[in-house]
Design goal:
mainly alpha
Length: about 130
């Protein structure tokens, strides 16, 4: 399946609308999955299953998790805030995280609040290109 980034984005937007009972006008690329769209962990799993079915590939895997998670080392987990290194590593898919870090320290437990629709699109595009 050779889709361009726009086609992938459209399919992801459709999955989000369907899973979250939203209309397309309620979602933008910069919409945050949790705070703007009201997504919870069950919604995320539902969307992952929908996307895997749509794209005929396993999307959520170890690499996907590694990119979408801050450092899981023991030392990092003890820290209350994300490190500069973690923020830098994640900033290409989470630009809002980089912006938030300019305003001060980013609490580790707020990490997922920075995941946007665009983050999801970038991750799926990377996964499909690697396939």
């Amino acid at each position: 399946m050779n889709l361009n980034d726009q086609e992938i984005e459209n399919k992801i937007m459709d999955a989000l609308c369907s899973s979250l009972a939203l209309v397309p006008d309620q979602i933008t690329k910069n919409s945050r999955l949790i705070s703007d769209l009201g997504m919870d962990s069950l919604d995320f799993l539902d969307i992952m299953f929908s996307l895997e079915s749509e794209f005929k590939t396993k999307i959520k895997d170890r690499e996907f998790d590694r990119v979408l998670r801050p450092d899981k080392s023991e030392a990092a987990l003890q820290a209350e805030y994300l490190t500069d290194r973690e923020i830098e590593r994640l900033s290409d898919i989470l630009p809002a995280l980089k912006q938030a870090s300019l305003n001060g320290k980013v609490p580790r437990n707020s990490f997922f609040t920075f995941v946007t629709v665009d983050t999801l699109v970038k991750m799926v595009c990377r996964k499909l290109r690697a396939k």
